[in-house]
Amino acid sequence: MGRRFRTRVLSFQAPGVASNHRKILVTGGAGFVGSNVALSLKRDDPGRDVVALDNLKRRGSELTLERLRAGGVRFEHGDIRNAEDLEAAGECDLLVECSAEPSVHAGYGGSPAYLINTNLTGTVHCLEHARRHGSDVVFLSTSRVYPIAPLRALPLIEDADRLVVAPGAAGRGWSERGISEDFSLGGSRSLYGATKLSSELLAEEYRAMYGLRVIVNRCGVLTGPWQMGKVDQGVVVLWMARHVFGGRLAYMGFGGQGKQVRDVLHVEDLIDLLRLQLADVDRHSGQVYNVGGGHGVSVSLRELTRACERISGRKLEIGSDAGTRDADVPYYVTDCSLVTRATGWTPRRPVDAILTDIHSWLMTHRDVLEPVLGR
Ligand SMILES: NC(=O)c1ccc[n+]([C@@H]2O[C@H](COP(=O)([O-])OP(=O)(O)OC[C@H]3O[C@@H](n4cnc5c(N)ncnc54)[C@H](O)[C@@H]3O)[C@@H](O)[C@H]2O)c1
Question: Is residue 254 located within the same domain as residue 352?
Answer without folding.
Answer: yes
